[in-house]
Amino acid sequence: MTLDAATSAERDIAHHIHPQTDLDAHVRDGHFNIVRAEGVRLYDEDGHAYIDGLAGLWSASLGYSETRIIDAVTAQMQRLPYSSTFAQRSHPAATELAERLTAIAPEPLSHAMFMNSGSEAIDTAVKLVWYYWNAHGRPGKKKIIAREKAYHGSTIVAASLTGLPRMQEDFDLPVQGVVRAPCPHFWRHGRDGESETAFARRMADELEALILQEGPDTVGAFFAEPIQGAGGVILPPVDYFDHVQAICRKHDILFVADEVICGFGRTGKMWGSELYALRPDMMTTAKALSSSYLPISALLVSTRVSETLRAQSRKLGQFGHGFTYAGHPACAAAALATLDIYEERDIVARAAEMAPYLQNGLRALASHTLIGEVRGTGMIAGVELTRGKDPATPFDAGLGAGRLVQDAARERGLLVRALGDTLAFCPPLIISEADIALMLERFADALDAVGSTLSGA
Ligand code: PLP
Fold first, then answer.
1. DSSP β-bridge partners for residue 165
2. Is the CB–ligand 1 distance for residue 151 below 6 Å?
3. 230 C-beta closer than 6 A to ligand 1
4. 234 Cα: distance to centroid of ligand 1 (angstroms)
5. Ligand 1 pocket mutation, candidates 287, 292, 293, criterion most atoms within 8 A of CB
6. With a 6 A CB cut-off, is 234 part of the ligand 1 pocket?
7. Among 87, 107, 117, 31, which Cα is nearest to 299's?
8. Cα-to-chain-centroid distance, residue 255
9. Of ligand 1's atoms, which has the minimum distance to the CA of residue 286?
10. What is the side-by-side strand order in the sheet with 219-224?
11. How many CB atoms lie within 10 A of CB 328?
12. Is 440 a residue whose pLDDT tops 70?
């Protein structure tokens, strides 16, 4: 480590609290300092290059060298660095972004609201669910159903919807009114001899039983990621969402799709909603909306919802929700340039074209002794490590199997994320076939390197 690097590590330890981090490990081991990026590679302060196997945080879909986004932001900053969108004010970038997003959104979404993060989009969606049912004279219909292993963010309500205990422990969460539905992970929860379709039916039946137990008149909305991301890259079983949507319609429950990871081509379709034939009443997007060049998120809503908001604002005198930076001109310009690139380069088709290299390449490793399941679709995948080959034989949690493989991959120039013992892959959608091959080679090397330690565990 150079003197400069040591100084920067000490400064970071002294004053910087990192999100989603083992804070003792930070103080003990210091930080991993990324100082520049190019294409699909990140570079540390010693000049080592790493393939970014997670596209930042499932988000930098165009990689790191899009000068066009930077130029669009610069031009916007010179023209109009800030203007609010409160109280009927707008600016061309916000208007255009709402128009462009709703033009490509799944049916029946017709209106967009902007905010700065996925969590804010989720919080906004929950507020709108409550507002909606109050407006419709059904104030008891307020509970929100979210699933085990869901990840919906870190703010108070988003963390409450999240189905991962660490996001709630000692934060006095979840807030009241969050109801937990089972995670439909067939490999983990399927019974002996049960087919995937039978499992999907059972998961849907359990969801409906839960709704009936709570009372349909008390349930306002069901929130779901089309593919559960940070909970371990969990794909829904065949037909699952068809059943779930039918149940939501039957009990008049709003369906909210959280597309913060799945949106903008990640699955090989523009939306996870397209892949699974979802017709959400509301949909959250963030991350790849600007390819992460600037923070921006959007909540898209159907006309049924937007008309309700309008009626309620007429009654109350104002729609009383919104953020200072909603539709920030620079962030909106970054998103518009990103959407231009998606369209012109047909990034969705490119993701679909590259997907088999990632998916087949990972599945070719499935016989490795450490691997329990390889799962994924499009350009998102998870590799779960187990001691035996099935979910009933996990590694001891204290062993940190996922973390060991993550660290070994990093030593070999690959960044992947350990979610417990699942290694997540979500590379930039612009990654080449050659870099996918390199990524797989490094991952296989990392598995081999830690294999002997773990297989004896
Ligand atoms: N929803 C999903 C599906 C996510 O994956 C995330 C973040 O990873 C969020 C919401 C929260 O987004 P943010 O971290 O921008 O608040």
1. none
2. yes
3. yes
4. 15
5. 287
6. no
7. 117
8. 17
9. 15
10. 109-115, 297-302, 282-285, 254-258, 219-224, 143-147, 178-181
11. 27
12. yes
Amino acid 7: pLDDT: 80
Which of helix, strand or coil describes residue 166?
Answer: helix
CA distance 402 to 408: 10
Residue with CA closest to ligand 1 atom 7: 153
Give the amino acid at 304: R
Instruction: Assess whether the C-beta atom of 229 lies below 6 angstroms from ligand 1.
Output: yes
Residue with tokens 């979802």: 278
End-to-end CA distance of the chain: 33
pLDDT tens-digit readout, 72-119: 999 999 999 999 999 999 999 999 999 999 999 999 999 999 999 999
Q: How far is ligand 1, taken at its centre, from the CA of residue 165, in Å? A: 16
Beta-bridge partners for 121? none
Q: What pLDDT digit, counting tens, does each position of 42-83 carry?
A: 999 999 999 999 999 999 999 999 999 999 999 999 999 999
Amino acid at 302: S
**Block residue for tokens 């932001």:** 73
Q: Which residues are CB-contacts of 416 (< 8 A; sequence separation ≥ 6)?
A: 53, 54, 405, 406, 409, 423, 424, 425, 443
Per-residue pLDDT tens over the stretch 187-224 = 999 999 999 999 999 999 999 999 999 999 999 999 99
Residue 26 CA to ligand 1 centre (angstroms):
23
Eight-class DSSP state of 60? -
Question: At residue 322, does pLDDT exceed 90?
Answer: yes
Q: Does 118 sit in the ligand 1 pocket, CB within 6 Å? A: yes
Alpha carbon of 389 to ligand 1 centroid (Å): 31
- Atom 12 of ligand 1, nearest CA residue: 118
41-44: strand order across its sheet: 34-38, 41-44, 49-52, 414-415
Q: Which of 2-6, 152-156, 256-260, 299-303 has the lowest mean pLDDT?
A: 2-6
Quick one: which of 447, 361, 376, 355 has its CA closest to 187? 376
Instruction: Return the exposure string of 117-131: e unless at least 16 CB atoms fall within 10 Å of the residue's CB, then b.
Output: bbbbbbbbbbebbbb
Mutate to test the pocket of ligand 1, among 123, 166, 261, 291 (most ligand atoms within 8 A of CB): 261
Q: State the closest ligand 1 atom to the C-alpha of 155, by its place in the atom list counted from 1.
A: 16
If DSSP codes are grouped into helix, strand and coil, which group holds residue 201?
helix
- Ligand 1 midpoint to CA 59 (Å): 10
CA nearest ligand 1 atom 13, residue: 118
Query: Could you tell me the pLDDT band of residue 452, with boundaries at 50, 70 and 90?
Result: confident
Question: CA–CA separation, 158 vs 322, rounded Å?
Answer: 17
